[in-house]
Specification:
4 copies of one chain form a homotetramer. By secondary structure, chain A is mainly alpha-helical. Chain A has 3 domains: 110 residues, Orthogonal Bundle (Fumarase C, Chain B, domain 1), CATH 1.10.275.10; 237 residues, Up-down Bundle (Fumarase C, Chain A, domain 2); 60 residues, Ribonucleotide Reductase Protein R1, domain 1 (Orthogonal Bundle). Chain A contains 18 helices and 4 strands. Chain A has a two-stranded antiparallel ribbon with strand order 1-2. A two-stranded antiparallel sheet of chain A has the order 3-4. In chain A, a hairpin with a 2-residue loop joins β1 and β2. In chain A, α1 packs antiparallel against α2, α7 runs antiparallel to α9 and α10 packs antiparallel against α11. Chain A is elongated and about 105 Å long. The model of chain A has no long low-confidence stretch (mean pLDDT 95). Chains in contact: A-B, A-C, A-D, B-C, B-D, C-D. At the A-B interface, β1, β2, α7, α8 and α9 of A face β1, β2, α7, α8 and α9 of B.
Chain lengths: 439, 439, 439, 439
């Protein structure tokens, strides 16, 4: 992702647009065919001085102005006539925006690929741990048993929705920007639409209904979807880092040399990947807000709003993409301590099974009496520091209704998982459908 | 929109969910049919004390807990047996989230309706002013002529894209939330899926692959799309308020008694509608950021993140909806001073036509010589405070190439509009397609 | 805080300004003294129809316009001559902003009082637990021992800095807004400054160097400081909610009927107060961003930016104040399980003391050899699942250097607390200084 | 500012801390004096491989870990014994945070210097244009006359308040961070405080009451004040860019080669400096929100929150500093067209003076009759397209009360400026006081 948005590539994408414009205009007959080669051959980023262009940008107002000036001079040095046709009829924002669209095409391809990889890793995790019990935690407190497979399925379900969102937004963003100085293509006279169409063809972009210089929803939508993705990545790693706590110890990021350890504190296994992802999940939302806030751009070219996009969108792409890469690492190499997951379910001395026993007794006693019986038993368990099972096993009313085998079974988390497995299966089925839909 | 999200309606939507749950569970055989009527008949918001529930919410942690407690007591007073089956197997977040989805269904219907109304008003404006010339302004400076119809078409094009986005997100948000305390429906034993399916049917919502208690992308996506819409509304009113400036005077918000006038400053016509919309466009982006930032919710129930959603999403809905209503008012009743638009094109003493003349001369002289000739003429025009037309009309080189009729024509903005009309037609065609797609 | 910012109080504060203006202008001789009583007597919020004013606000552009119109009519009904002097020479923003300043004066007094209360509760906690050992956790992993007193002292130190910030900002915000329609007080002719000075005196506000209608740093600064405070409250409750986890169990929010418990999950003790605070800490930062973003207000009266402030600043005040109240509750009634704190230090089977032993052995062996010896011992402890103490107690090289008494002491967290106590004392000393400074 | 926060300088500031720590510890007797030179001599950024360190950072979790490892190896290669004392007793966050404080000391000095420069330029502008009339504009509509000097004074007043804020925050941020792995300085045994004190002395920083590893208000406060400053800069350039509009033409950014011009649109004078500043004013608020949102950092070292600060705070510093530099350029070289300012006051055909005449007539007629007379005259002026002066000059009732000289004077904006000049003088007096206070 860093390569897609580095200064050099950014320059190249703008030069790609300029070269394609020359070809398109020659094809339509707007400029002489003879000019194309002279222009195209200079449209190579490596021959430009990136730093000098950056310095000139501040005074000129945007990067395309000094770039086109420099390029024109280079073309002129070889073919004075051709130089007159560099960037013919286009405005600097045409080149900057279309160049950005070309970058976003690469960026979205990478994000799509990585969300697919993450989804597959999560699907494996969900499938493998379909029957691995772990405490469901609400308010960061143990609530009832669930499965680690269902946890992973929840993560997967969100990632698969993001993959559909990416598919839906692409037709709106992978479009040409081409309107000339006023958005009318006036400099091209009657040839505007034909040229626009030819240019879109050259770049394999769709031709939008009209230029969108100050209608920024196309680009900002990309940011919002990347924001949603990053939010989900934050959720995944929030869970994992909570499970990595010394006192919980249920999952661990993969070990690697120099990764997350501490020689003076040998017991530590720091969630370094999760930290990167959580930092991204903290930074991306306000950056999305920047882009939304910059949408009310003035008239036919924004003053400040457009400029606010330039670094912000690449940052969002980089943060989301980096977070994706780290989450893939963490998930693909996740150490899962299933024994500890099960052992942690003992922390509450059986109280976590109170609801399960209540439900079972309710069939015999009715709901309210069952509830009262268990509530009283729980109180005794807490006061006496004993396991709820022991209290109930010693309760004559319970013994009259439930055999010890039955009672014991109720304290097995595997017997109180409800529809967990079916939910996992539904998510995995949806995952297979998504895989087909997005390809 | 305020009605959809008021305390009373919010309560009713949760009660709708609870009533539907009783019906669904009776249908599936999870609770006795006899309990349904007793529960259903109490699920009416008007019998509850909203303020008392609000006070109890702080201690309980969410609104559903005291609501269900209160409802259960009311049911019990009439039918003690039925009371045991209130909210059977559900968790408070099931009810709160599904209630929210029901509210969002109404909210999105309203937003869809209003975006359609705005689109139609903009389509009329674009069609009507297809040949109305106005200065295109870049950097808030006059650049070249364009048409007011193209300006309106640009606004329309964005609104129509939003309508497609709304259509796409609905299947993801109009879904049931139902997972019970741990997201496993454990309390329903083997009847979880059947109950969930029946409940979804009762509420005419889709059944999602799994509960999404801490996968918040569904709700946050709504916020992002409303954020994009509000951004476009800000863009529209930014333009209009700039055109309403005393020194510009091209468009005006509709007059109405008590609206935007000032008795001590009778020349003023304040853009009061635009101000409301621009305020919304300032407030919504950070609120969207709040929701994105709240996505990494812990384990099976968030701590703080979920709570941060409760007031934020309704605020976004209200701000977007209010901004839509104001924009519809402004656009539907917009006063357009086409004479002033044309007159303002004279402000630059003909310099705004420099590019048009250059392009025309380039056919005779080649691009560079034409450019140099006009550049020099512009310099003289500025120095001498004369109109560029007069300078050129007195230039022998120009006279040799262009007749006075030709030269005069070049200073008519209607002759330098390029593809503006075609762009408007394309946007209007797209608008008709969108109208079909979204219905 | 809700009372300070409710519609009724807001109206009253504006009416207070209008009444004070009449008194001030009569004193200076700008309006007849006879008009004062007629105006003053109608400046009571309870006689106005809040809903009707709210409806009129949308069309008028701000609340002050219909309020003044309504007030003028009421004054006129009793004293037609006096009605001509209502709000003489002022503009609606003068009244709205100065009314806001009066609200903020009350709001800041409340915040100052509550930060002081919280500071005192934290000081008690820091003092009381100066020698209570608890695991210091970095990356949410146990690192080394620290004291709970030092944890509390860290929270206290931040709160006390906020109290100084509040003291510093007050002179900048507790000032009059009074400039008339253009910020020149032109309607008052030569009496502008005298009137302004008298009005400031009436309201016990400072007279600023000039009107600040579109210089919003004064109000936005309030938001930033409340944002900083809310951030610290989020930090405090983040820590407490982490310590409340089932597997940690070191601190608990105070018990209260109906608070954070669950009848079907009797082991739970939900951090309901912390959730409210963490939600505020999620919501306030973007709201601060709204206000910062709204600062570039146009010319002499903003268009949208000012309007964006109206609801945002009260929300920030309410969220910060609510978070403060909840944090005070949590801290003042905090259950601290010092036994569990100490027991949790055993979780790592002695590895948490590795650094302490290394430091001790380094005096005998040099740092590197000591480090290697302990690293190897830790490896064996982990592999064999034994306590590090046991490994070392059985190591002949260690036995040669350290007596068993010495070795045992190194595994007592109380012996590896460094300067913790001194830091607590320094914070408490600073607290006493702050108490003096802010009063 | 870019230099202060570049990778190389960042490294150097951390190395400065490490070198100072060695000196301090030798002074206190914690490490042998012999080790100091070996350590100090390697604490030079230019000998490190920045890219390699950046790569290692991802796995290690922060930059200080690989830096210290690398540094230790370099020291060891020359003096094995000294290597054991590199970074003795400190934790990586000590070095990163204190290094950041050293960077912020430089950054704040630069910001202080530039705000002073801007203030001086604004003071000159305010003084020079104390009697230059210009339209005051509310809602972006001409309201009444004011002076350009008062406009500049408003900007100045805000900048001078920021200078006081900068002065106030410095004692809170220019402090040492030094707590060791757990914030207790345990590794230094009884020497913690003495070492801390010596280290603070070496670095000329204050010694805080306690370490502040997860109490981030000190650093976030810097961001909030820079956010306030950037907001004011946005306000200044918002005004200037509005005044630069083609139809307004009152002020212009300074001309420079290649700056803001367009060869094909010679009439343009683009506000390129203002665009940069407005972009900063759009980008900084959400970045401030990022830092506020990252404040609730877990326990003794944050997970994600701290990491979110690393790039965000330098970006804020760079954006604010860049915006300051551009605003200084714009203000110091501002072209002011005082003729156009006065001419624009004619745009409303005299209606802008309606209030002035009303006030004058009120002395003769009473307020209400005067108001009605003028309101009717204004209506006629608008209907007949005539200047209000002409209407009034032909009104017998007016003629009876006012001589033509008197009436003419009322249409001179210089005669309706109220306290504008006094406000300017007060701001300039406050400016002189501020200059003294901040030095």
């Amino acid at each position: 992702m860093q390569e897609i948005f580095c200064d050099r590539t950014r320059l190249q994408r703008m030069l790609d647009v300029i070269a394609a414009l020359a070809r398109a205009e020659a094809r339509v007959g707007v400029i002489p065919s003879a000019a194309v080669a002279a222009i195209e051959s200079r449209c190579r980023a490596e021959i430009f001085d990136v730093d000098a262009l950056a310095r000139a940008t501040a005074a000129a107002g945007n990067i395309a102005i000094p770039l086109i000036k420099d390029l024109t001079a280079r073309v002129a040095s070889g073919d004075a006539a051709a130089a007159g046709f560099v960037h013919w009829g286009a405005t600097s924002q045409d080149t900057i925006d279309t160049g950005l669209v070309l970058q976003l095409r690469d960026a979205l391809a990478l994000i799509e690929n990585d969300t697919a990889r993450l989804a597959h890793a999560l699907a494996d995790l969900a499938e493998f741990h379909k029957r691995t019990v772990v405490a469901a935690r609400t308010w960061m407190q143990q609530a009832l048993p669930t499965t680690f497979g269902l946890k992973a399925a929840g993560w997967l379900s969100a990632i698969d929705r993001h993959r559909l969102r990416l598919r839906e937004l692409k037709p709106r963003i992978l479009v040409l920007q081409f309107g000339g100085a006023a958005g009318t293509l006036a400099a091209l006279g009657a040839d505007g639409m034909a040229t626009a169409s030819a240019l879109a063809g050259e770049l394999e972009l769709a031709l939008p209904d009209s230029p969108w210089h100050t209608q920024r929803d196309r680009v900002v939508e990309v940011a919002t979807v990347l924001g949603l993705i990053t939010g989900t990545l934050g959720k995944i790693t929030r869970d994992i880092s909570l499970m990595m706590q010394t006192e919980v110890g249920e999952t661990f990021e993969p070990r690697a040399p120099g990764r997350g350890g501490s020689s003076s504190m040998p017991h530590k296994r720091n969630p370094v990947g999760s930290a990167v992802v959580l930092a991204a999940a903290t930074r991306v939302p306000p950056l999305v807000s920047t882009l939304l806030a910059s949408m009310p751009q003035e008239h036919e070219r924004g003053l400040g709003g457009w400029h606010a996009e330039w670094e912000t969108l690449p940052q969002i792409c980089a943060l989301c993409s980096g977070a994706l890469a780290h989450t893939i690492d963490v998930i693909a190499g996740l150490d899962v301590d299933t024994d500890r997951m099960r052992a942690n379910l003992e922390t509450t001395d059986g109280l976590i099974f109170a609801e399960a026993v209540t439900m079972a007794l309710a069939k015999h006693l009715g709901r309210m009496p069952a509830h009262e019986l268990i509530e009283s038993a729980c109180r005794r368990a807490l006061e006496q520091g004993r396991n709820l099972y022991d209290i109930l096993a010693g309760d004559s009313k319970v013994n009259a209704l439930l055999s010890d085998t039955e009672l014991t079974a109720m304290f097995d988390p595997l017997n109180y998982l409800g529809s967990a497995e079916q939910f996992v299966d539904r998510v995995l089925a949806q995952h297979r459908t998504t895989n087909q839909d997005v390809t």
